[in-house]
């Protein structure tokens, strides 16, 4: 049974002036129905303390909570799924580890990545990128741009690969309409919201374009 995958994935990030919990509260108050807790600066114990508080907020708002990479925390907090950023991960094994009910997301940069991940039959959605320049998580993967997504979505259609593709990496509100025209299921956004002068307003602008 195919799981629900939101069209708007909001990602928290490590910020000096605003905690992940504060980011989640702002997002939920602005209408978030899907949040990915993406933290690289804490120990597992610190993760768990913050995660439990974040999970309470998400539960109050009916918001899906996904964690980046830390599968071991799924059984320790009220988290609905995990997103794995390692492109070469063994998703079949990860699915066995987390069970059938948790949502499992994967990262990809190329059509070959998508084909391999989809063939596992273990993943619920794929975050494909980067769309553009992003400093949230520096990497050496080629930037896809609109033409990259257009080519990937066309090939997926030919190959009959039916898995939701979430565009990610350097995405702003100005890119949403064009990406939707390429056939992507949705977008994942972080810095365009978190580093804006008015995060709540930035969130709502993107939300309106996707609903």
TrEMBL record:
Residues 16-193 form the Thiamine phosphate synthase/TenI domain. Keywords: Magnesium, Metal-binding, Thiamine biosynthesis, Transferase. It comes from the Bacteria. 4-amino-2-methyl-5-(diphosphooxymethyl)pyrimidine binds at residues 107, 137. Its EC number is 2.5.1.3. It is an enzyme of class 2 (transferase). Mg(2+) binds at residue 69. GO terms for cellular component: cytoplasm. This is Thiamine-phosphate synthase. It comes from Arcticibacter pallidicorallinus. The lineage of its organism: Bacteria, Pseudomonadati, Bacteroidota, Sphingobacteriia, Sphingobacteriales.
